[in-house]
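Sat 14:20. Reprocessing the chain from the morning session after the first attempt stalled halfway. Input below, unchanged.
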Amino acid sequence: MAFTRNFLKTMSLTDEQVQAIMEEHTNVTEALKGKIKAAEDQAAAFKADADKLPDIQKQLDDLKNGEDWKSKYEKEHEDFDSYKKKIVQEQETEKIKAAYSKLLTDEHINEKHIGKVLKLTDFSEMKLDKDGNLENADDLKKAINDEWGEFKVNVSQRKQTVPTPPAGNNGSGGGSGMSRGAELAKRFNRERYGIKDDAGKE
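Finished this time. Tokens:
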């Protein structure tokens, strides 16, 4: 039986009582409708989420079987460490090359051949001491002379011999043994003061 005003009036209720009961019934009904609608909406959301589960599961399986974020981070970290080590090693090699180039110069290797020697030299076994000098320098010098001796400059050819002027010349061009300056001064005195030399000439 429907819950109506006529039904309530059969129960000998006054109009005010009937109205109060109907209003309360309406409030309860509307509240129930709201709850039903919310439950339906929630059920629809649950269904939408359930429909997404296969895709989510596939993504999880891909991460599990593939490369996840942790392995990516570890790989990038390893790559960065390798790059830093490479830079440090290159800087150290340049210092070793500079020290070896100086050693070649000290051993009188011709400068025009030093670049060629550096290109053909293996620096992987060379090390610097705390002062920045090559370790086992004596062994390296011997190796330089054994391997690159043909590029050495003849040190004796580098020395310039200063010619010794003839005795009694002193650079004046004559044989009087008097310097050019003294000769000019003597001539000046003869001409200005009429001074005669030992031969009686002015």
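Helices lie at 5-9, 15-65, 69-106, 111-120, 137-148, 155-158, 180-193.
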